[in-house]
Amino acid sequence: DGGITQSPKYLFRKEGQNVTLSCEQNLNHDAMYWYRQDPGQGLRLIYYSQIVNDFQKGDIAEGYSVSREKKESFPLTVTSAQKNPTAFYLCASSIVGTSPSTDTQYFGPGTRLTVL
Amino acid sequence: LAKTTQPISMDSYEGQEVNITCSHNNIATNDYITWYQQFPSQGPRFIIQGYKTKVTNEVASLFIPADRKSSTLSLPRVSLSDTAVYYCLVGDRTYSGAGSYQLTFGKGTKLSVIP
After folding, report:
1. Quick check: A71 and A30 in contact, CB under 8 A?
2. Which of B100, B107, B109 is the best residue to mutate to test the A interface, defined by the most A CB atoms within 10 Å of its own CB?
3. CB A107 within 8 A of CB A95
4. Which of B33, B61, B80, B100 has its CA 20 to 30 A from that of A99?
5. Which residues in chain A touch residue B108, judged by CB atoms under 8 angstroms apart?
């Protein structure tokens, strides 16, 4: 089955700890994205990567870091510097076409992070 | 990224046609209009995309008037399974700083389908 996988589905961490969220895709897409969604809110872009070993900050990159060592993988680290890390995190991928806002994005099932 | 405005929520009975309108007054010439659907605790799913006039696929239609300052997503004969949040996304890539992007889905429209 082609698609995007995120693990784990639920994640609990103590305040002050870094945590890494996994995102893997087998759609052969070049572009990958990380979004954050808070209750009752839309999605906000954290990081965007158009190609391996390259990524750009999104609207709310502070307190987050990413790596893109392989085309299939785009892990997100939520650091202790992120003041309000509890949220629903979504990973997506797309071809690289016109632009991130017009290229059809395929989303993973999400990881719900709770920081205690 | 063009700012969009959608109704916060809508209710509809099963079997009815539902029209959700998105306003995007500052849409740019190169901007496309894309709609996504999101069920609770899941990632959004692409529904339809258009540039002007009308686009139709197997699940929805998208109507875009000549001035392109708004668009309407039309869902024919909705069922309970269409209960979801619908997002309108408009825009081209916008740089918010050196090498950074703005790309935000608004709050969307929460559609509730009633039996």
Report:
1. yes
2. B100
3. no
4. B61
5. 42
Q: Average pLDDT of chain A?
A: 91
B70-110 pLDDT tens trace: 999 999 999 999 999 999 988 654 544 445 566 777 789 99
The full 3-state SS of chain B, as one line of letters, equals CCCCECCCEEEEECCCCEEEEEECCCCCCCCCEEEEEECCCCCCEEEEEECCEEEECCCCEEEECCCCCEEEEEECCCCHHHCEEEEEEECCCEEEECCEEECECCCCEEEEEEC
Q: How many whole angstroms separate alpha carbon B14 and alpha carbon B2?
A: 33
> What would the two tokens of residue B97 be?
């700083």
Residue B98, pLDDT score: 46
Model confidence pLDDT, tens digit, residues B26-60:
888 878 889 999 999 899 999 999 999 999 999 99
Cis peptide before A8 (omega within 30 of 0): yes
> Which residue(s) pair with A4 in the sheet?
A25
